[in-house]
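Section 5.1 Outputs to date
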Amino acid sequence: MSAERPPARRTFLTAGLTGAGAAAAGIAAGYAYRDSQPGPATSAGLTSMVTGTLPAVPFHGKYQAGILPAPRQQTAVISFNSTAQSRADLTALFRTITARARFLTAGGTPPQAGIGGPPPDSGVLGPTVVPDGLTVTVGVGSTLFDDRYGLAGQLPARLYPMRPFPNDDLDPAQCGGDLILQLSAGNSDTVLHALRDIAKHTRGAMAPIWRIDGFTSPPRPAGTVPRNMLGFMDGISNPDTGAAAQMDSLVWIQPGTKGEPAWTAHGSYFVVRLIRMLIEFWDRVDIGEQEAMIGRRRDSGCPLDATSIYATPDYAQDPTGDIIPLTAHMRVANPRTPQTAASRILRRAYNYDRGIDAVGNLDVGLVFTCFQQDLKRQFEAVQTRLIDEPLVDYISPFGGGYFLALPGVADASDYYARALLTA
C-alpha cells in the first residue's frame, strides 16, 4: 500500500484561508466564554498553580490592545515571511489572523469535532479556552511593501529595515520579516496555545523565520517594577500611558501626518531588539561600578542622587557627573533636556532564557520592544546616544527588526490591515 502524499503548499493556503470572511462571522470569530471557577485547592502549592485567571482584554478599538498595558508575565515574539500568492490571499491571511485573535482574546468553547475530523482546538488549555489576559499585537515590516502585492505606494514614510549600530552583532537569521506577532498573556501555555492556533489556521500563507519567548519577573522585594537579568529594576521611567496627550505626541501616528499614508493613522512604529546579556562577566563587576554604569541603586532602583525610585534625577545639580556619571545608561538614554523630550519612547521589556550556548555560557538577556511615532526621532536618537556607553561590554544585541504596528480593529466587521489592503 503506497504512502499517502502530503498536501501541497497551495492546499494548506486554501484550507487555511478560504471563507475567512465567513469564519470571522462564525466559528473563528469566537464562542461564548464560559467562566469556569477552579475547585478548592488541596494545598497552597496547588493554589499558586491555578492558571487562566486574568480577565479578557477587549479586542476592538482604535488602537491595538497590547501596546499600552504593562508587560504580561509571558510573551512570544514571532516574525514571519508572507507566502500568500496574491493580494487576495494576503487579505484572507489578515482576515484569518483577525478572526483567530478575536476568539482567542475573548475565550470560549470550541465547536465539537466532526465525525472523523481533527479536533478544532489543541486542548492545551482544556475544553474551554480561557482568555488569560491575552493580547495579540500585529505589525508589518518594510519587506511586505515590495512588488508582490502592489503595496509599494503604501509604504509607511518612516519604515525601513533595521540597521546595525556600532557594538551590535546582528544575526541576519534573527532579523526582520514581513509580519510580526507579539502574543502576551498571564501564562506560557496561553501564549503557546495562541501561537499554535494561529499557525494552524494560517499555514501556507505565512512562514515563521524567528521566534523568541520572554517573561517578566515578579517585582522583588516588592513594588511594581520587575528586574532584568543584570539584577536591576527595568522600565522605571516611561511616558504615562494614561496621559492621552503624551501618547498622541509620542506613540500614535496621527491622522494627516505629513508624508504618511492615510492607512497608518492610529498605528505605531514597533521596534524589537534582542539583546543578550553577558552575565558571566557582569557578575564579576563590583556593585558600585555596576550602579555607576546604570545610574541607579541595584537594591532599590533609586537614582544615585535620590531616595525614591520615581524621583527625577537632578542633572543640573550634577553637571560633571560626580554622583550620576555622564556615561550612565539612564543619563545618556534620557538626558531630560527640552531638546531630547521628543525622543522619548514607550519602552516594554521582557527577560529571556534560551539555555546554554556551545561553550557552556548562559544564553539569557532582554527582549526589548518599544513603540513610537518616528523611528529616527525617537528610537534611533536614543540608540545613537548609547553608542559606546560602558554597558556595551556586557550586552550584545543580535536580532530584531523595525515594524509598523497596525491600527486597531474597530469592530466585528473590521480586520487587521483593512485600510492598507483596500487603499
